[in-house]
Amino acid sequence: MKGRLVALGEYRGREAAALVVDGRLEDVLIAPADDAAPAPGAILRGTLDRFVKGQGGVFVKLPQGRKGFLRETRGLTPGQPILVQVSGHAERGKALPLTTRLLFKGRLAIVTPEAPGLNISRRIRDEDARAHLQALAEAGMVGSDYGLILRSAAEFEEDDTVAEDIATLRDLAERVMGDDTGAPELLVDAPLPHEEAWRDWAEPAPDDVAEGPDAFARHGIDDMIDQLLSPEVKLHGGWTMVVEPTRALVAVDVNTGADTSPAAGLKANIAAARDLPRQLRLRGLGGQVVVDFAPMPKRDRAAVEQQLRAAFKLEAAETSLAGWTPLGMYEIQRKRDRLPVAELLGGIAP
Prior knowledge:
This protein has about 350 residues and is α+β, with helices and mostly antiparallel strands. It folds into three domains: about 5-30 and about 195-220, no CATH class; about 35-190, CATH 2.40.50.140; about 230-345, Aminopeptidase (3-Layer(aba) Sandwich). The chain is built from eight helices and 20 strands. The chain has a six-stranded mixed β-sheet with strand order 15-16-17-18-20-19, with helices on one face. A five-stranded mixed β-barrel has the order 4-5-6-8-7. It is globular and about 65 Å long. The protein starts with a strand and ends in a 6-residue tail after the last helix. The model has no long low-confidence stretch (mean pLDDT about 95). It comes from Albidovulum marisflavi. Its cofactor is Mg(2+).
């Protein structure tokens, strides 16, 4: 299965989308349970609760008795209603991370009420195309103080399609931003997997799109997702990597099997470094990540770290590569932008 495939189907009875490139699963989105907390991207009206000394933030009362935590506190007072957006997933039992810098995302554009200015994606390099899109942006946002970003997918769309996306997002933003008083309420839900796939995987354009309840089964995607429920990852070259989340951190262990030579250690570690961002993304894992690489000479650490930095550079999730610990582990901090797959699928029969 060569090329870029987007599959829009179901997994274990839930709406799901998968991105497969040259036969390898690159990303997967699965709808959460109906009673799950609002996902990243959801916009809510909340009520400020109490400020937390020492943590530099304030708790926010959300719909259905949920709690959120907001670090932006300047000019805020307890009891006031406030518009917030979910910015990440919370660990079980903790408050949802929130932000007041709302983003209204579409397939071709993003409206930014708190960040004025008209911007064109840097991935669009053709100067004539940039100038043309700039004119569309100015026409679509005339009379508004809101900001706008045109995404790279806008470069090859018809003018009417781009203008319609801008108008739809601007109208939504204006309605929501004007609805800032009242009791806690969900105003804009996070997109479901099929919508999010069309929005975020449109560029570059897929070579094939598979749709329907049997789309996953036809392309073997069910089996690919099932493998994510096992901690062991088979790496290129026959090495293995074990990825195990705990309450405190995500532990990653790289193994070379019976071959304990320095050369095998370096090759296995490079293979693990290249695949680690994909595995964390697919498994929905974030927070503190500690990697126990296979034994290798200290002089080879630079080569492994170079591979890590190159691999994580392409990731959308905010990631900080902290570096080597005195005991030879490698520490990474990754934003929790999704629910862990094991938690997401908990209680659903295969």
